[in-house]
Here is the input.
Amino acid sequence: MAKQVHDPGTGSFGSNERMMNRDGSFNVKRIGALGPFQDMYHYLVNIPWPKFLIIVFITYTLLNTLFATIYLACGVENFNGIKPNGTFSDFLNCFFFSAQSLTTVGYGNISPNSHLTQLVASFEALMGVMSFALITGLFYGRFSKPKARIAYSNVALISPFKDGKAIMVRLANKRNSVVVNAEVNVLFSKMITRNGNERVRNYYEMPLQFNDIEVLPLSWTLVHPIDDKSPFKDVTLDQIKNDGGEIFVQLKAFDETFNSTVISHYSYTADEIVENASFEKTFYPEHGQYVLDLNALSNYRKITP
Here is the structure.
């Protein structure tokens, strides 16, 4: 009989919605949580790189536009190297001077010649130093943040195993570095009816053939034998789907890239489980070394039952 375990933290309320998204994030919408401006460092460190770079570019442009407008309001006659030539041309010259002041480049072809413009330029230089210090810290935080780069197979398979069958999932490290002391914990979750009509979510242990390895240079196939201790014993995929079944995979390992422990999550629903199938090989020897094809991580072939 499958061993029931306590709620790992994902809740026991009645819902068939999947708890974990395909990217490994939890399918939770927080109301009343801290917004980007209330927890800006965490927000800027965790958003995708394209979005982060766009925010940096927009902030840089807006700051220069703001100070260029102030310089233009002060009058271009208060600058050496700028001859009045229409509002748009004067604004571009002020914008260029602002970029020099903000980045402390100071080419020298344009310079303030009044106390007011000198005061504004001094304040902008201070803003530039502080801004680039913050951006440098954010870049360091993003690059140095320990983050697992584990690839999972898109599907879980029900494959022949010994004298019976097993649930199989495959994973691999996407980095060229070595992951060591990897441990995996796998749980199965499904909805059950309690007290006649109350729907609650229960969690069951999925014992693996091996739940830890010393090193992970190649792919690793997790094998859960479907025996008397398995929650999949005498259960069909249709039943799993109707019960909102979901397989949770959590990996914890030491990544030498960060010299730190990293954690990765993934999950599979009934729609992502394939019966009577077997994974194809992902690595093979070639010219005196092994070749690992991560693009083949989810490749499988059907087996006639």
Notes: The chain is about 30% helix and 30% strand. The CA atoms of residues 134 and 297 lie 40 Å apart.
